């Protein structure tokens, strides 16, 4: 079975086509600047070089049509006809309390995703555009949705409830949901395979750190706590997001600076984090380069980032009464040698000991970076959310037959 995986944004769309016989990627690509006359389609077939095409792509329906044209093109295509695509899987950010697993798309599922627009106004509407665009172009092909929040629906009430009037939960579902669930699920499973133990017997802390970042305490294969909250703003310090702060900062800042709700929301999501503290960049690579040159604000941004990361690891070790495995993943987690080293060097109270030489190795494969004497296994596991979406879609379609 060939499955097309789609991640639709408001003005962009990423895709991968999988052959589930061996889970190989036949093609990947993205469409950028949707809605403009200079939209960009970048197509990367497995058998030839990447191609780039600039054209007018006014909406997601046209974007999907262009993608299908490239996938079936005589020269750069990877299938002869679109009938070879037997299912489509979508990433959807927010499933609220309604979805604890991936599901096939039907009218009820679409209605519920729409109902959840308020919880993810920047993401869920865009995902819905992707679903509708596929319906138009591939009307007879089953679609599945895989939710970022679903993996975290195993959290106990003591972890997901906020200590605010309960009426806000009853009326508006104000609670912790968590995100990056597909990634946390994937890397925790891969970590168990690498250490050669059943995931049911393991206490794992997964560190998904990129421009956005979150940690999850995975006990027995289930999420029992995670650092992001009702939105992706809570938790770690991130590229442009503040992460945790005193809630009173919000009304105080609004009053002192005469800010609107939208303005303070933009400040906390787009103008805070590494960018705000360093005054230079939201990119950890640029932060570490500047730090190496002695830039004090870059050093402070780095130190704050690592400090918060280490605090959450310590908290989740306490929540699970121990930890067997710590996993680093996503852009920063997979590629920043100095972040992993700085984080782990003060986790000796947990028995963490990393091997400096193993930590320097770059690989696309999962790898152990801790020493044989380390009481906690430390791994770098490249994430693969698209593969998890493809696997869930394949499973759901097979079960429906």
UniProtKB/TrEMBL annotation:
ATP binds at residues 14, 208-212, 283-285, 331-335. It catalyses: acetate + ATP = acetyl phosphate + ADP. It is found in: Cytoplasm. Its cofactor is Mg(2+); Mn(2+). The active site is at 148 (proton donor/acceptor). Pathway: Metabolic intermediate biosynthesis; acetyl-CoA biosynthesis; acetyl-CoA from acetate: step 1/2. Mg(2+). Can also accept Mn(2+). The record marks 180, 241 as: Transition state stabilizer. This is Acetate kinase. The gene is ackA.
């Amino acid at each position: 079975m060939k499955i097309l995986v789609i991640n639709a944004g408001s003005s962009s769309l990423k895709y991968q086509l999988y052959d589930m016989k061996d889970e190989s990627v036949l093609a990947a690509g993205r469409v950028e600047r949707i809605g403009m006359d200079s939209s960009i389609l970048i197509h990367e077939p497995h058998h030839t070089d990447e191609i780039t095409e600039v054209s007018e792509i006014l909406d997601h329906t046209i974007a999907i049509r262009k993608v299908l044209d490239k996938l079936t093109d005589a020269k750069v295509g990877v299938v002869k006809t679109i009938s070879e695509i037997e299912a489509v899987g979508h990433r959807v950010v927010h499933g609220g309390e309604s979805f604890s697993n991936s599901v096939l798309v039907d009218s009820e599922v679409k209605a519920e995703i729409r109902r959840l627009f308020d919880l993810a106004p920047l993401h869920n509407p865009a995902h819905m555009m992707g679903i509708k665009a596929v319906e138009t172009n591939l009307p007879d092909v089953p679609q599945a949705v895989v939710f970022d929040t679903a993996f975290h629906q195993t959290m106990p009430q003591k972890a997901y409830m906020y200590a605010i009037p309960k009426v806000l939960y009853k009326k508006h579902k104000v609670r912790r949901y968590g995100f990056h669930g597909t990634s946390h699920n994937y890397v925790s499973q891969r970590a168990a395979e690498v250490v050669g133990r059943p995931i049911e017997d393991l206490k794992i802390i997964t560190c998904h750190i990129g421009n956005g970042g979150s940690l999850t305490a995975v006990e027995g294969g289930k999420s029992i706590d995670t650092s992001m909250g009702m939105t992706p703003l809570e938790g770690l310090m991130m590229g442009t997001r503040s992460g945790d702060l005193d809630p009173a900062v919000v009304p105080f800042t609004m009053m002192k600076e005469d800010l609107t709700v939208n303005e303070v929301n933009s400040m906390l999501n787009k103008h805070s984090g590494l960018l705000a503290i360093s005054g230079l960049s939201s990119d950890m690579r640029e932060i570490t380069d500047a730090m190496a040159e002695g830039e004090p604000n870059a050093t402070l941004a780095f130190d704050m980032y690592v400090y918060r990361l280490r605090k959450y690891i310590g908290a989740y070790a306490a929540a699970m009464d121990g930890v067997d495995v710590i996993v680093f993943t996503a852009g920063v987690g997979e590629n920043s040698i100095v972040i992993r080293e700085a984080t782990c060097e003060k986790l000796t109270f947990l028995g963490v000991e990393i091997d400096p030489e193993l930590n320097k190795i770059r690989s696309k494969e999962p790898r152990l970076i801790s020493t044989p004497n380390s009481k906690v296994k430390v791994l770098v596991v490249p994430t693969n959310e698209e593969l998890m979406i493809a696997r869930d879609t394949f499973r759901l379609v097979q079960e429906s037959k």
